[in-house]
């Protein structure tokens, strides 16, 4: 992998599948991305089993590895920054394998990983058939339909969710440093 860095940043003040690429974003500790619809102390998710409940927001920042775009391209899908709803597009960090509680320093601002993003039906609405690129069974067989959060025997590749520990500005090119939590390490679970 290359030197870990931020490739692009995005935000959106409305609930849409994709986010709008930006020159920089401002992270606010305990709140999320300033100006993003998902920012706040409580969860803002509009779909799924937690809809309508007041729960702590463990999804303040969505990080996605740009290497997924290469995999999608080889399957015939062209993706760009913000397309999959991510706030921070990374390079050189295997986000999916990091444990819960990992601190990711984005060149000053720091986020703490809280879970995996669970791909939903909107992915296939965005690009028909894309689900089979971002979701597979444990044996590597592509899955063409969303799966329940409780299903652990699948590989989810649409990024990780985090909360902001230290605020500040994030822009493309900033270095990324990873600090693992004290063990024992718990794998990220879908949120």
Furnish the topology, listing elements before pairings.
Layout: E1 5-11, E2 20-22, E3 24-28, E4 32-33, E5 61-65, H1 67-74, E6 88-91, E7 103-105, E8 110-116, H2 122-126, H3 131-134, E9 135-137, E10 154-156, E11 160-166, E12 168-171, E13 177-179
Parallel strand pairs: 5-6
Antiparallel strand pairs: 1-2, 1-6, 3-4, 3-12, 5-11, 7-8, 7-13, 8-11, 9-10
Task: Write up what this structure looks like.
By secondary structure, the chain is mostly beta strands. The protein is 9% helix and 29% strand. The chain is built from three helices and 13 strands; from the N terminus they run E-E-E-E-E-H-E-E-E-H-H-E-E-E-E-E. The protein has helices spanning 67-74, 122-126, 131-134; strands at residues 5-11, 20-22, 24-28, 32-33, 61-65, 88-91, 103-105, 110-116, 135-137, 154-156, 160-166, 168-171, 177-179. Strands 2-1-6-5-11-8-7-13 form an eight-stranded mixed sheet. The longest helix has 8 residues, at 67-74. The chain is globular, with a radius of gyration of 15 Å. The two termini are 27 Å apart. The mean pLDDT is 91.
